[in-house]
Amino acid sequence: MHSLRRLRSIEILPISVRFKGHSNDHWSKRDNKLGTVRALKHFDDFYKTVYGKSWNDIRKALLQEKSKYVAVVNNFSDNERICTEMECLGAIDLRAIIKVQKEILDESDKGKSKKRLKELNRKKMQREMDSFISQQQLSELESVYPAETPAGKQSLNELIDEEKFHTTEEEGLKPVSLKSISANAEIEYDTSRIISASSSLSVSSLQEFVPVTKLKGLDDWVLESEHYGYYSKGEDFTISIEEDDSFSIPEQLKLYTFEPHNFSRFRSSKRGTTGVLDYYLMDGGSILPVLALDLQLNDKFLDICAAPGGKSLVAIETLLPAMAVLNDVLPSRVTRIKEVIGTYVSNIGQWQKKIAVTTKDAREIDDMGLFNKILVDVPCTNDRHSLHVNDGNWFRNEYIRERLKLPELQSEILVNALKLVAPGGTVVYSTCSLSPIQNEGVVQMSLMKAFEEANVVAVVKDLSEGLKPFKYLYDFGKEKLKYGHLVIPTMGNNWGPMYFCKIMRIQ
């Protein structure tokens, strides 16, 4: 009988300081073998054929020095106070935005054919959303700071001028400020999604998803499509796709961000009365794979590649799982997970007893049927990271062969998750890459292998209908993917890329 007691309990460890790049190691002072330079060349060659004219806009967003964040309010701190402070800063509750967007879509649907609905004027929707946001911000500010300020109390402007909510860097984890590869400045970076590239990997089906692009090899040009040419098995494997509109923000999960084209920055998080930090900042695209899991009360949740721990924290902040197991393969990566949990989760309601952190190879976990919700956020080329950070960059010369084998590693992890999840349970696969090989290609070959190796029957869920209200904040691309959904980076909301695919095991 499986139980949480079998799993390794967490330890509370001190927060480590993020590493920093060095200006004397700047890309412009080194040769073109630098990983960031090679990554940009590869993306220009590869993604231009995949995304066409759209690639120019995606490229600009990826190369921006600053990305955009969502603040995840910590329910283990003083959440009511935190929400009030967020609103005073002008941040908007995502649930409020989605609610209004749903109302606009529902109103537009009345008395209109599907064809007419598709022709709905986007500018009109934009005006309505802008009006709602302005009115909400004004009413929220007036409710907290009336126009006539009582004697002895500060006005909103005075509070902001005095940086009422400012804290020092030592009080919490600061978000990574990404720098353009052309910026002549020091940058902070996070290598948590980069793993050792020495794993032994098996053969899988990829041919349908491989573009005809070139990679610079150690000595000569290597056609990527030729490298994957032997992956011919499984092209005709049939995958069932079902529509699923169950995409929403759980009631207890509180998320804040700024409206499109508003790049205001959140201040450093401070500690509340319970001793943990008030909120966690993360890329706006990263919350969607967790929402796609559709967590319900008493779910048994596994994050199979959990480092650095942000997505796991979002799942925990829903207050829904009966147990949460956070796993990663390397001790250094597991340390990162423990830091996040120790910094944001207090023992309110004995929550720390519901959480376990384990150190296992995701391909070798064998707790069959224990979990009904599994997040598979696999190691990937991490496109945004690859354009800004050279250390650990998959596009460095010495990592070419290992990078070409990444989809096989991703597939092996996803196949094991499909075997682990209980029948009727859900697996969400995700990457932070624009590559159709690492995204749809891995889903295709993994479902085939899971069926062949363990008679696992699963269906892919199409979340298009449920995602419609989110299109105000997210660009999901012009073309519908064969499997899953992809957040495209834009100048207005510079987050992503983030691919995610919801899969439900039938047997």
Topology:
Blueprint: H1 35-51, H2 54-62, E1 69-73, H3 79-88, E2 92-93, H4 94-109, H5 114-118, H6 122-144, H7 156-161, E3 214-216, E4 221-223, H8 224-227, E5 240-243, E6 255-257, E7 279-283, H9 287-292, E8 300-303, H10 310-317, E9 323-328, H11 331-344, E10 355-359, E11 373-377, H12 383-386, H13 400-404, H14 406-420, E12 426-431, H15 437-454, E13 458-462, H16 464-467, E14 485-487, E15 498-505
Parallel strand pairs: 5-13, 8-9, 8-11, 9-10, 11-12
Antiparallel strand pairs: 1-6, 1-7, 2-6, 3-4, 12-15, 13-15, 14-15
Helix pairs in contact: 1-2, 4-6, 14-15
Discrete helix count = 16
| Secondary structure category | alpha/beta
Q: What value does the Rg take, in angstroms?
A: 23 Å
Taking all residues together, what is the mean pLDDT? Answer: 79
Which features characterize this protein?
507 residues, alpha/beta, 4-stranded antiparallel sheet, 16 helices
Could you explain the architecture of this structure?
The chain is built from 16 helices and 15 strands. The chain has 507 residues and is of the alpha/beta class. α14 crosses α15 (437-454). The radius of gyration is 23 Å and the shape is globular.
Summarize the structure.
This protein is of the alpha/beta class. It is 32% helix and 13% strand.
